[in-house]
Fold these 4 entries.
Entry 1:
Amino acid sequence: MTLNQQPLRGIIPIIFVLIASVLFILMGKIFFGLDAAMLSVYALFFVWTAFLISMCDRWPVQKLRQPVAGFIFLAVALIIGILHPVIMQVLGFSPDFYWPLISNLFLGIGILIAFGNKLVDGFTQPTAIALNALFCYVLAILLIQVFGMVPAIWFAIFVFVVFWLEFWPVNQIPQPAKGILAFVLIGAITLVLEYGFKAAGTDFFKPEAGLWFVLFVWWLVATSWQLETWPVKLVAQPVKAIAGLGVSIILTFASYYAIVSVFRFDPGTVGGFVWVFVAWLYTWEIVLGKWPADRSSPKEDPSATKQ
């Protein structure tokens, strides 16, 4: 088995993700006095920026090899992402707006991905990425004005439908019907998740459910992105996705039990830290791909390459 074969191809970047996440947490706590909640805020703005960068077709560093191009994008994502709360404070927005903006911005990215990033067809860079960013910001602010925060409970199911289920059974139909039906499917499965929380005597906004949710996101992403659905990559849908969902749920319950019952950590605090790990998990894959296991450039646009 070579480094560029699964599971080493995915495990090695995950190890680097764990190291980067711990360093991010330690630097935030030691040098800036940030608690778990604020660390997660900075990390989520950072990973949202990375998602936006993923849609720029590696512009303007297409000719650079890894890891140089990846670290440039990583630095840009970190700087722009971390500046979000700072700029919001300057503009007079209270911390109460952090999570609504984050949640709604991710809905914007989700829409762009589900619809194949067709919004900016025909535009070149940097116009295309500027228009994508404008769409996300306008949508997020309008939603705050009308609804407040759109709960991000849909996000785990979005990851499952797009990256494990690979849009099955609507993967062959054209846009925009594909994107619309994908969100219908995401909504339906999200209702099942919500009823599952209620049956367990909790809800999405409680610390226990929040920790379970973010662990679920971690395992869905790690198995579908880093491990590239190994070892069931060649299995036909929907069996492949059901297998991935089953493994992700088992690993989620196992890690939740270890955190809450064995180590007896506070679910709210750990949940904030796990969002940092999830942010780095996504971002590493977006900007660095499978580096250092694979030295080639990462796939450019998740909306176009993981469908």
Note: The radius of gyration is 19 Å.
Entry 2:
Amino acid sequence: MMESAETGECLWMVTNDYIFGIRVEKLEKLGKNEDRDWKSHLEQAPFDFCLNLPESSMLDYFIFDSKFFLVGKQTESGTKIYQISYVGGNTLGTSEAVETGAIPPLPTEDFIFLANIKDDVYLLEHGAVPQLGRKTGLWVLCPNPPHPSWHSAPDPPTEVNSDDYSVPVGFVLNDKFFLHPLSAPGIAYLYDPQLKAWIKLERTFFVPGYDLFVRVRSLGDVGDGSVVLTWKLKALRVRGVKYDIQALLVDNKDYCILRHQRLDELCEAIQPSFFDDFSSELNLVDLGNSKVCVTISGLAEGIPSFCILVVELGLVQEEQRFLSVRVLVNRVFDTRPYFLDDRVQVLYTSFLFSLRKRMPRKHPYSKDCISPRKEPKLAGGTNPSNPTTAFEQE
């Protein structure tokens, strides 16, 4: 039986059909499997709550006016937005946010990213336009009482639309929004909310094969740089994939990579020897106090599992590395008791949000959250948006 989660900072996680969470205080006390025989120590995951989503595959979320919202699937009849509130015990409350007036309707149904920057929400439009190819636009939702509304921002440069077959990658760093076209390695377009302008950057975040980035805000600035984590899949020769996680020291002015380091201690601590390539997902969350939580959910060696690690990062001045890594938590849990159907639940997104009855508050590190749109992953099949995804092989 799940424990009551009345108050406190909580790690929230969203899969195909469920939203569940675990209090950070409990998370940091889970301990480690020292002998690495994780299958012999497979226990039921210690979630504080686990509930069905209002609809399946709700892949986008954002925080607005200290409230938490999930976005439904795009349909011909429109896209529903649900406000999620904590009621108490194992119970969450859901309401249709547009109907209750908590949020205005989305300005477009064709979008690929939702991102929080400070108190505002940014939405990237990327849809097909007859005879014009792709259209990319930027919208901003600002908390202007009593009637907040979406406002158009300057459109991204036309170069973003030069490739009709790939979707640009978006992320947030230092309260700025980045677009990274996959067809132009090393090129990024930065949107500065203060200047209300796009800036073209070259040689930015250029690490072949790595295209998702999360800043560790709790480490602060390192000289003129910021610590950013990134990861990619590595295909194994026999079966499945494993995750390769790296740290980057990124210049705060031109956003070029000053140093990079593979986090060997973290990569080697991941206990399952392989994961299913289309039925698993990795998420990184900054817990504060130089601690980072790594979660991998899906099929681990064929078992529906929840792999969770917490590491403490420290700054060091060495020739080969700039970060030390200390593993604090390293456990693998069984998710089958929660997900009783045959469908494997893949973890799409993780984030911190405080549990307070009826009105959760925004966590200070959530300002750099990014919600990229992902296609649902099908257990034992392929990703329908990219059936020929290639992974680096060992």
Note: The chain has one domain: 8-393.
Entry 3:
Amino acid sequence: MIKTGEGSIAWNSFSECSDLKKVVWIENGIQTVIGSTSEEVVVDKGKDLLYRKQRLIFLNPNKPNRTVNVTLHLPTFEPLACTDHGQRNVYLDYHSNEVEVAFEEEGIENTNKHVLEDGVFDLFSIELILRLLPLENGYKNEIKAFNHMVNDTVIVRIEVLGLEKIFDGAREVDAWCVSVYIGESLQTYWVSKDLKELLKQSVKIGDGVFFEFVR
């Protein structure tokens, strides 16, 4: 199991980047573009901080857009703060082995605290962590991450399924197909073999129904 600050991983090596993907709904083989998602990662090596901002924008004006910001200690990926603004607003403040979570919905705010084990990540750092792992055929590992959507720490199981050709926005490249179980919920990611870019994400909603982020 990987913990924050794991010595075999070069956390400090994460570089600034930005990305834009289409959000696609797939049902019985029919694909419909329903929005876009963007990512911006800023690294402040002077302060040993990494900031990640992810936005989800829907074409349907009746669906709430979502913005998630996470702040990490760069040398360890220990979480410091996270905000999630969408259908409701969530604020997470990490300190020592504790996280304080404030939920705000329809003007009502609730706050609770959770004691964390050593080495727990924030759930929204998983997509960063995947790009630092030594992915190869047969690779498996686990992490523990605090998931504010269920208000608890969950085990995240990571397994490389194989190498596939994936479109990177310009051409097809080799990418590791990685299954990620967040508790019992499955998400699949494709990480480019050479550049360690996150090229695609797929979430199975039901039989024949998928929610995907693609370039």
Note: The radius of gyration is 17 Å.
Entry 4:
Amino acid sequence: MLIDVDDNFFNELEEVSTLLDMTVGEYLENLHEKNQSLKNVLLEDKEGLQEFVKKYHTVLDDLFILNREALAIVNENDDAEIMKPVFLKLSKIASGDITVLSKLYDVYVQTSKQQMISSSTLE
């Protein structure tokens, strides 16, 4: 896939980076780091990511299908009928976007490492 680098492309980069309060260089660097992180997860820890996704989907199922308490909390909100589709969309986005899943996996890995360190210092 080739990117046509023209004035319009650069203007879009400038617009997005300005909205994010970054320079174009910082924005491109940030994108590169995110892409590199995603590639590392997909290439180096594919099995770990797959196991995490299974556990993640189990938790989502428990939250949105089986857990009546979570549904009761949503129903207590004044905008419950408006918020339900938002939660469903969030669930679909978080479950289907590999970039989001890889970020969540990074949190999972870091938390697991911290928990192992805590456990080993208690022994």
Note: The CA atoms of residues 60 and 66 lie 9 Å apart.
